[in-house]
């Protein structure tokens, strides 16, 4: 049995080595080097030193964390509440669940184009609506004061994923728990606060984690909407690393890439701890 | 989306919420100026090829790792699964470098292989946990009847895994269809690019053609949306399994 098993795992192991392990080694190794794809010289911590002295890098860190915070603070609580409401199976819940999930399967690039039109300073829906009520419009994406919030608003309300996970988890909660609470005279709100929410801890943690992983690597929406501008006010870490790569500063790009992975790792461990993911809920 | 049916003049004059006159010129631009259909063909190739590759390789690896315990089986499983939690954009430059060294940069077969690799961890994790939950009796019976490893895999495990394969397939298809970052990094010529890049091109090349770009966006988002509406159950099951396992 040993031979076929090894043969069976081999293709996966090869793909994994080429596209995950090797890049990982290249990433970390070259982050300590000056490298443009050809000439390679080790320079120790130089890249990291340059990085922490660059104000744009810190802007990218702040923006990435800002985008993550916005998406978590809006998406997760809204998603949980709507998930709980939909789980009551009120009439039409199926249709509503579908509608609320659709935005999740639309690509960032498509979103970016729709929002670019929406924010368009002269013809966009937003400024037209503001004009109707007599308010002044803005050039939302080209104003350092509003660009970052305008970008964040494009993904803050994509809550379908949380809703789906929450509903799946609620479906697995035994009905008896609620029946017992009801006989004890607990109101519907009390039941959800005391039974549903604590049992959702794991799933809420998972949603936070999945969002974080997506947001740390945020690229496409920002790249298409603003390319990080104006004045780097919307730049993310992924975009910052990508710029270095375009400039041929590969070693530097990889120091930033390593930083992205390290921040990701820290956040994952923190969230898993905070929500005690993997431990039994009861 | 309504604006995609407006004429450029109407959009630019900002008059009226409803398209009037109703026009498909934005859609015509999407095909004649940007040649969207060529990008669609590439994207279909990547999404179908990458998904098929990932599923095949993941099933091959997931079955033994779900069924047998041997030296290293735990760490291999952990390593494959951990790849799911890495923010891959951090690996941009190394992936570019490796694709270039392997002669896979800016090539259609290269992108199919890359997307198969990209979808491998997710497919592996979902399939492994599904297979671990299957009772082994059928396979044992086949083994006693003298069937070899790969025969059992093909005739018993493969048909039984169909529901799990279907869910992963839908999710993987949508993820590859929507993929932007690595498509942008790993392809340069138009003839190898996917629809998401076509959309980005729409914005830069035809900065003023907002109705055209909205038409493009509409066409590009229709595919995953329709797929989701038809296969809702699979998409939901796949995402739930991928996130919680």
UniProtKB/TrEMBL annotation, chain A:
Residues 61-271 form the ABC transmembrane type-1 domain. The keyword DNA damage does not apply. It is a multi-pass membrane protein. One of its GO terms (cellular component) is plasma membrane. InterPro entries: ABC_transporter_permease, MetI-like, MetI-like_sf. The chain crosses the membrane at residues 12-35, 65-86, 98-118, 150-168, 203-229, 249-271. It is found in: Cell membrane. Keywords: Cell membrane, Membrane, Transmembrane, Transmembrane helix, Transport. One of its GO terms (biological process) is transmembrane transport. Belongs to the binding-protein-dependent transport system permease family. This is Carbohydrate ABC transporter membrane protein 1 (CUT1 family). It comes from Kribbella amoyensis.
